[in-house]
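Appendix B. One record, verbatim.
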Amino acid sequence: MDMKIDGRCHCARITYEAEIDPEKVLICHCGDCQTLTGSTFRTVALTYEDTFKLLSGELKTYVKTGESGAKRQQSFCPECGTPIYSSTVGEGPKVHAIRVGTARQRDELVPKKQLWFRSAQSLTSALFLRSKSSLLLTALAAWLELAPVWWRGEKLGSRHLV
């Protein structure tokens, strides 16, 4: 099922619209994505060139050879530098990897896959595990506080419902 998205760069010089498949939203942990984002990973939505429409501005591009040896065209705003998408190079249909952070609908674009996970920074796994353990510890603490009340058959007071 296709979904229409629209987005822009930080300074709003570049605006676009595209059709994407929400099932083809992914996280890339490769070193290039870490360097190009200045963060631990990059989240992208894949689409074909013919479903991407530049509404305003003109993109600046350069070609980068990735860790895999594949060439990727990087397209970004020449004014503010916001990356808009990367694309395959060469003959055949072009697949654009739109940067999810530029899409107005970014909250709806949940990643379904992860690539280059072996290059992921250790803190990525640590944060995920910590957030899961925090949830478990919070649930355990609530259960330990409320269990004696339930076992004694007491009514729950407002102090238990915080």
